[in-house]
Design goal:
heterodimer; A: about 500 residues; alpha/beta; Rossmann fold; B: about 80 residues; mainly alpha; Non-ribosomal Peptide Synthetase Peptidyl Carrier Protein, Chain A
């Protein structure tokens, strides 16, 4: 029985040592190189007493970043890879939560890594460290599959990001059932879009090491220039993409599918956001032989939980379903009475199974709020994850996403709590009350505030507090905040106002 | 040109568009900004930026963008 993610790599290396595992188009690593570097880093960590704990990885997206992740796993530890470009204050909050043993960085992030008051090692200095197979074997011997593999941070409504800790067993379960549902193999050539500091790239990383496939880590800047992006896909004969919807619509909405289609694509997985019907149709028409899948799932349930293969035509006004859970994952749809929702009734989506992660790292309060005893049975302990997503079953028995219960949004594929933006803005001097609303159709975060500070100055300050993708697209200063009769912020009025202003 | 700078200022009010030459290279514009800009420019100037003109060099400064608009306008 497989108990460690690394077994995928270990089975592939002897079979395909010289095949490229990961590449960014310029630099690449073969499976043998990946394994060597990972074991060197693992040996370094173990010999320096940093095994079996958290190691922070501050590197830009590159094949060596993946070698570092695997290196941390070889030492029996787990990695946290915060976005190195995020504001230092937020980075510090994340490091305070996980308290890593040390930081591994690349040259570019050396200055940042050195400013954190932690032990630092440069990747280039440790990637050829002498491999100590005996120590690695010892670390493996005491490993159990419920040990964490990584902590991924997600937006928190109170302003403090939450770190989702996932164990090896959950990742293995996800890998097996995802591969079974979508169907990857050795000939799969992935074009990765999502940053490596999320759990989303597990979709490419895990099948790549399981089957001996190849994954291209596409440089971020290409996602601004669709013609160049399609050139890149064609140059590397990329046949499989699992992208956020906004990356796909960037290509289709600008007419690139006709002029420069990604002609090798066979499998297109999308998710994290609602796919506008018109753009979805453009993609399907441009790639009639490709297979399309909608994926759905929260980080708290390891990667994705549900999938819908686009094998039937949708009615004009029918939303793209999120479909059925992967094997070994159970969806519970619970109504307001705490009972199973009836056919067609809207309920909250709960997720159960091995995919449910360990919880929020160093945060028992938030963990207790979302990782709960199954409300449908009390006879034995069974932790389920409460998503906060509302859904219903359609006539085909497929799950359909309806809306969020709270003010969490999906913006450019990123999961954001509007509360985190409001909390950050409220810490700026001269800012009074703040309210953010989201225009889903226009994909804009609109922020309203009252205070002495000017709009441009506040925008500048926010850049020091929030990652780029959380920055409001439009900011308005108000004389007074509109309140409801109960004295609460009138979000609905502001949302109407923002919608009007955008027209 | 003034109208273009107004559009840009809506996206990033803190930038000095008269002098900034690295809107793309310095990571000021992201992919959403590019999509928004293209739509806004197409509407405001009654042009249609074709996909093959969506290149870093055309979006790096307000001046480069303005030259692109003028070029498209005369076609």
């Amino acid at each position: 029985m497989q108990t460690n993610i690394l077994e995928y790599l270990e089975q592939t290396v002897p079979r395909l040592p010289d095949k490229v595992a990961f590449s960014d188009g310029t630099d690449h690593m073969t499976f043998a190189e990946l394994s060597e570097s990972a074991r060197s880093i693992g040996s370094y960590l173990l010999e320096h007493g940093h095994g079996r704990g958290c190691v922070a990885v501050l590197m830009d997206k590159h094949p060596t970043q993946l070698a570092t992740f695997f290196g941390v796993l070889y030492a029996g530890g787990f990695y946290v890879a915060p976005d190195a470009a995020m504001p230092p204050k937020r980075l510090q909050m994340i490091l305070d939560t996980v308290q890593p043993r040390m930081v591994i960085c690349d040259k570019k992030n050396m200055a940042l890594a050195s400013s954190l008051g932690l032990d630092v090692a440069l990747y280039d200095d440790i990637c050829c460290y002498p491999i100590n197979d005996a120590l690695i074997a010892c670390a493996r011997e005491v490993h159990v599959d419920t040990d964490p593999a990584y902590v991924v941070f997600t937006s928190g409504s109170t302003g403090v990001p939450k770190g989702v800790a996932a164990c090896h067993r959950s990742v293995i379960d996800y890998t097996e059932t995802l591969c079974e549902a979508i169907g990857f193999d050795e000939h799969t050539v992935f074009g990765n879009q999502t940053p490596l500091y999320f759990d989303a790239p597990l979709k490419e990383i895990m099948p790549t090491i399981k089957y001996g496939a190849t994954a291209y880590l596409i440089p971020k800047q290409l996602f601004m220039f669709p013609v160049k992006l399609c050139d890149y896909l064609n140059e590397h004969k990329i046949n499989t993409v699992c992208w956020v919807v906004s990356a796909l619509t960037m290509i289709s909405s600008l007419g690139v599918l006709e002029k420069n289609p990604p002609k090798y694509l066979e499998t297109v997985c999308f998710g994290s956001e609602v796919f506008p019907k018109k753009q979805y149709d453009l993609w399907r028409a441009a790639l009639p032989d490709a297979r399309f899948f909608n994926l759905y799932g929260p980080t708290e349930a390891t990667g994705m939980s549900c999938y819908w293969p686009a094998t039937r035509e949708l009615a004009e006004d029918e939303p793209i379903p999120v479909g059925r859970p992967f094997r070994n994952t159970r969806i519970l749809l619970i109504n307001e009475q705490g009972k199973r929702a009836e056919q067609g009734e809207v309920g909250e989506i709960y997720i159960s199974g091995t995919c449910v992660t360990l919880g929020y790292y160093n945060n028992p309060e938030k963990t207790a709020e979302a990782f709960l005893q199954n409300p449908l049975q009390s006879a034995y302990p069974e932790t389920v994850y409460r998503t906060g997503d509302l859904g219903r079953y359609n006539d085909y028995g497929e799950l359909v996403f309806v809306s969020r219960k709270d003010s969490q949004i999906k913006h450019m594929g990123h999961r954001i709590e509007l509360g985190e933006i409001e909390a950050a803005a409220a810490t700026v001097d001269g800012v009074g009350r703040v309210c953010c609303v989201y225009l889903a159709e226009q994909k804009k975060i609109v922020m309203y505030f009252v205070g002495e500070i000017e709009t441009a100055a506040l925008t500048k300050e926010l850049r020091l507090l929030l990652p780029r993708y959380m920055l409001p697209n439009v900011t308005h200063k108000l004389d007074t905040m509109p309140l409801t009769v109960n004295g609460k912020l009138d979000r609905r009025l502001l949302l109407e106002q923002a919608t009007q202003n955008d027209k | 040109m003034e109208q273009l700078i107004e559009l840009l200022e809506e996206l990033h009010p803190e930038i000095d568009y008269e002098t900034e030459e690295g809107l793309v290279d310095n990571g000021i514009l992201d992919s959403l900004d590019i999509v928004t800009l293209i739509t806004d420019i197409n509407d405001a100037f009654d042009v249609s930026i074709p996909a093959e003109e969506i290149l870093p060099e055309n979006f790096n400064s307000a001046r480069a963008l303005w030259e692109l608009i003028e070029r498209l306008d005369t076609v």
